[in-house]
């Protein structure tokens, strides 16, 4: 194994000069992102609306193809994958969505098992059409997120916080190595937000997963992240260890002034 390959194995993510343009270059969503994320790190992405957080997350599991640049995710190059390899790769990279992305008319349990549909042949209709071991595992994950009693309740009838718990159980059910969470608490009230972030990061820590999460709540980010990365206009303008950051520091990313001109040289 070469040094480069060894480093790629130790890192969950390595992005080099990643750009992403939309509308034939009219929108430059990412303008050269360089980012290395060690395995097991809990990284929060911050930035104003439109700064490129979602695009970064979506490039990582190839929901978007980058326009240019190189990337390695979990030791592999997603750009070089066939459709089949990409399906397998996406089992290793779970996504937690802001609006939960559950099927409201299906039970919580079925929504969790939907996380494994990529590994099953053909569609499934109803809980009993999934293998027994899968049902047990899905139930165990629902219990883990505190929803064992709601396993057979239709997802659409659950509260927002409960729906996101299902979203987290679905992610864990995939047995991922990397969890990408796109503003997972943006649709929730402050108390539920705190509970859900605590849950997400605790379970990911227990399972030794890498988490990359976009989040607007600076206090929550400082409390739960190992590292905070700020984006502005598709560029990284802030990259620090969360333990060395204050709310005022982190808030510069949301200030009207450009943090690259801040008096603190490290904030650039
Ligand atoms: N599918 C798309 N087509 C065209 N432009 C897009 C598309 N997706 C994102 N963009 C643009 O790319 C830029 C970055 O968007 P992105 O969604 O990554 O920002 P964000 O930081 O996640 O914002 P928010 O906090 O509002 O979710 C924005 O200008 C956005 O309008």
Description:
It is built from nine helices and nine strands. It is of the alpha/beta class and 268 residues long. It has a single domain, classed as P-loop containing nucleotide triphosphate hydrolases (Rossmann fold, 3-Layer(aba) Sandwich). α5 (132-144) crosses α6 (160-173) and α6 packs parallel to α7. Residues 259-268 have low confidence and may be disordered. Adenosine-5'-triphosphate binds at residues 22-23, 27, 29, 47, 49-55. The site of adenosine-5'-triphosphate (ATP) has 12 residues, from β2 and α2. Residues 13-258 form the ABC transporter domain. Pfam families: ABC_tran. Keywords: ATP-binding, Cell membrane, Membrane, Nucleotide-binding, Translocase, Transport. This is Phosphonate ABC transporter ATP-binding protein.
Which tags fit this structure?
alpha/beta, Rossmann fold, six-stranded mixed beta sheet, three-stranded antiparallel beta sheet, 9 strands, about 25% strand, disordered C terminus, binds adenosine-5'-triphosphate
Bound molecules: adenosine-5'-triphosphate
Report the CATH C-level class: Alpha Beta
Largest sheet: 6 strands, mixed
Lateral arrangement of strands in the main beta sheet: 5-6-7-3-8-9
- Estimate what percentage of residues fall within beta strands: 15-25%
């Amino acid at each position: 194994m070469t040094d480069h390959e060894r480093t790629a194995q130790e890192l969950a993510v390595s992005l080099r000069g990643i750009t992403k343009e939309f509308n034939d270059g009219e929108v430059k969503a990412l303008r050269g992102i360089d980012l290395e994320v060690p395995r097991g790190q809990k990284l929060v992405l911050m930035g104003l609306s439109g700064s490129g957080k979602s695009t970064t997350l979506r490039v990582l599991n190839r929901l978007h193809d980058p326009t240019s640049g190189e990337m390695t995710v979990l030791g592999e190059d997603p750009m070089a994958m066939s459709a089949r390899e990409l399906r397998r790769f996406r089992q290793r990279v779970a996504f937690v969505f802001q609006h939960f992305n559950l099927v409201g008319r299906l039970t919580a349990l079925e929504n969790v098992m939907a996380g494994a549909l990529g590994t099953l042949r053909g569609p499934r209709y109803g809980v009993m059409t999934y293998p027994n071991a899968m049902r047990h595992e899905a139930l165990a994950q629902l219990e883990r997120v505190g929803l064992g009693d709601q396993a057979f309740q239709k997802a659409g009838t659950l509260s927002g916080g409960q729906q996101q718990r299902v979203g987290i159980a679905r992610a864990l059910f995939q047995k991922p190595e990397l969890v990408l969470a796109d503003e997972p608490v943006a649709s929730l009230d402050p108390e539920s937000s705190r509970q859900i972030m605590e849950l997400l990061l605790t379970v990911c820590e227990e399972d030794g997963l890498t988490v990359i999460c976009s989040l607007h709540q600076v206090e929550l980010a400082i409390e739960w992240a190992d590292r905070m990365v700020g984006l502005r206009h598709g560029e990284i303008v802030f990259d620090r260890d969360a333990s060395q950051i204050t709310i005022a520091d982190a808030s510069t990313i949301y200030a009207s002034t450009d943090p690259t001109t801040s008096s603190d040289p490290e904030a650039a």
